[in-house]
Amino acid sequence: MITETKSVQFDSISLDSGATLTPVEVAYETYGTLNDNKSNAILILHAFTGDAHAAGQDKETGNPGWWDNMIGPSKGFDTHKYFVISSNVLSGCRGTSGPGSVNPATGCPYAMSFPPVTIADMVRLQKMLIDHLGIKRLLAVSGGSMGAMQALQWAVAYPESVAAAIPIAGTARHSPQQIAFNEVGRQAIMADPDWNEGNYYGKRPPARGLAVARMVGHITYMSDQSMREKFGRRLRDQNQFEVESYLRYRGSQFVDRFDANSYLYITKAMDYFDLTNGRTSLSAAFENVKSRFLVISFTSDWLYPSYQSLEVVRALRGRNCDVAYCELPTNYGHDAFLVNIAEQAELVRGFLASTLRGVER
Amino acid sequence: MITETKSVQFDSISLDSGATLTPVEVAYETYGTLNDNKSNAILILHAFTGDAHAAGQDKETGNPGWWDNMIGPSKGFDTHKYFVISSNVLSGCRGTSGPGSVNPATGCPYAMSFPPVTIADMVRLQKMLIDHLGIKRLLAVSGGSMGAMQALQWAVAYPESVAAAIPIAGTARHSPQQIAFNEVGRQAIMADPDWNEGNYYGKRPPARGLAVARMVGHITYMSDQSMREKFGRRLRDQNQFEVESYLRYRGSQFVDRFDANSYLYITKAMDYFDLTNGRTSLSAAFENVKSRFLVISFTSDWLYPSYQSLEVVRALRGRNCDVAYCELPTNYGHDAFLVNIAEQAELVRGFLASTLRGVER
Questions:
Q1: Architecture of domain B177-270
Q2: Which member of A187, A224, A248 has the closest CB to residue B215?
Q3: pLDDT tens digits, residue range B312-326?
Q4: Which CATH number applies to B2-173+274-360: 3.30.1490.100, 3.40.50.1820, 3.30.70.270, 3.40.50.1110?
Q5: B311 touches chain A (CB under 8 A)
Q6: Which residue of B has its CA nearest to A242?
Q7: Cβ pair A118, A16 in contact under 8 A
């Protein structure tokens, strides 16, 4: 499956902050075929540093998509049956408008003058894309981590437009620990003199700060046990521990594919996301939802622990929503949604099939 | 109890690396009175960023010691009964020789030319101090976190000189996750241009990098739950989360009292510490120990999880050592050994009393 990232531009988008972004571009990919009554579309929502290239082999680079083991012919999101859409989030750096985009009013990159963005804004842009593709109602929305937050936001903001939501390893709001880890990453970036208040485009980017931020991230994505299994206390050259070389490598590699300002904007969007905001309870947030839910979490995920998924499940059940919950046993920690595929794919496959039967009935 | 940090200088110390440090200075404090047969001395071993000022009010600053709630009249380490000694570790920055000390051969601070230091080297210097004080056998050695590592090293290296060891919230060797968090801190420091390969004495220190390192540390010292209880998602000025302000404050505060190069040296000493090194098993490391043990861990400590203390307990039991183990229930995470005092003090008090009875019998 050879894939290619496409792009569509809209005149403008109104944001939660009150700002209007003019114009706005969104990068996306599609896999499979939209059926005649447009009832088989699934929107995939990426995690923090993901992009539109969720599946297949990229036409230019040959790189596989970040969820290629879940999306494709006969896979969890079966492209024989479903039309799968994946887009890069607003304020990202992989084709969708973000701080690295050129502000037409100035001819220069927005940098920190890019307006603040919320998870709801990201979802609003996705809704514009779906409308553009002529799809009235998605069969499902699904994603892990920040993708799960977007899936919940979809169900809350556009209840008529989503038949099912599959939030994986996510939460309805960040805990102070999750905020704290993001804040360390932000401080590491802003402590790098090359960050220069965000004005580094065309110059040297804050590579050292961004690498440190990414190292922290990687620790939180793994579990204590998976690190012990993967690295132990093994040493490499010059008495460095293998885990140190690994983190440094992943940190330096990240710098080539991610923009530091997008790191700041997207982590802020995650931290401020709170479905209970302005409401009396999480259950109240789900007052008007019409979709069914499959909620998945992982035993060893200490960054997005199961209690956060259970909070969502309880609130949905309090609204008599159709919700299935599964905590999958794994050592992979938060990374499990990307790695631990067999059981997750099985759950998704069954849930989507029954959703499709319901929709076509 | 007004206290004062004293200092003693020795001609030289031989280090595990093969290097000799000439001369070497050690900062220490004592509390209580050494009895006539010198059988009531207890050595307190500080954690990563601690110092010799463990108890009482400092004569100059008025600051309480870092374990003041555990050490003093009628406290866990009861200074009515015991003579308590506390010293700053080798390679530290609070009076004991470290990278910030002046190298007499050059007249300049050692910086990164300070020889690498191990936990065993730290303990070797403490042994020199104890000898200097005329104490043949310590009633007990005790400390939390890195202090626990030193306590274990004491029991292994100087079996004749320790009647009892109380390692709290520690380990016989760092896991890759613990190494990884330390490595993030080191990379944050070394990414700061002001670090300048360690040569910043008399200039601007790498304050931003050191602050980021400290922020990561603070997250790992607390638990998910204690952060939720302490901060929740409360906001402060300018839409900052309280947890963000707290971490930034603690980070910037740390810069005034800690030397970045000491951060590098001490974390490396912790990471390389491994009692199984060169031995067939952890149990083999304890072959010659003669002391009794009280091992304490905390339920919510995810940085030094209970399984690491249990590994030590099992290995000691495999050698038929006299070992008591207690996992204390608490939400405070790794910080619990500094905070969660009542039960810990009670355990220590009883254990020390029975050790003293055994010694005097």
A1: Orthogonal Bundle (1.10)
A2: A187
A3: 999 999 999 999 999
A4: 3.40.50.1820
A5: no
A6: B176
A7: yes
Question: What whole-number distance in Å separates Cα of residue B110 and Cα of residue B259?
Answer: 13
List every span in chain B annotated with CATH 1.10.1740.110: 177-270
pLDDT digits (tens, 9 = 90+) for A205-219: 999 999 999 999 999
Contacts of B254 in chain A (CB under 8 A): none
Beta bridge partners of B13: B21
Residues of chain B in contact with residue A243, where contact means CB-CB under 8 angstroms, are 176, 179-180, 183
Is any Cβ of chain A less than 8 angstroms from the Cβ of B193? Answer: yes
User: Which of B228, B248, B271 is facing A176, going by the closest CB pair?
Assistant: B228
| A194 classed as catalytic | no
Whole-angstrom Cα distance, residue A262 to residue A247? Answer: 21
Residue type, A163: A
Check pLDDT > 90 for residue B194: yes
Q: What is the pTM of this model?
A: 0.97
Instruction: Tell me what pLDDT residue B124 has.
Output: 98
**pLDDT(A341) > 90:** no
Flag whether residue A350 sits within 8 Å of chain B, measured between CB atoms.
no
> Identity (one letter) of the amino acid at A216?
V
Rounded to 5°, angle at Cα B164 from B158 and B170: 85
pLDDT band for position A278 (cuts 50, 70, 90) = confident
The number of helices, as runs of H, and strands, as runs of E, in chain B is 11, 16
**Domain boundaries for CATH 3.40.50.1820 within chain B:** 2-173+274-360
The answer, yes or no, to whether residue B218 has pLDDT greater than 80, is: yes
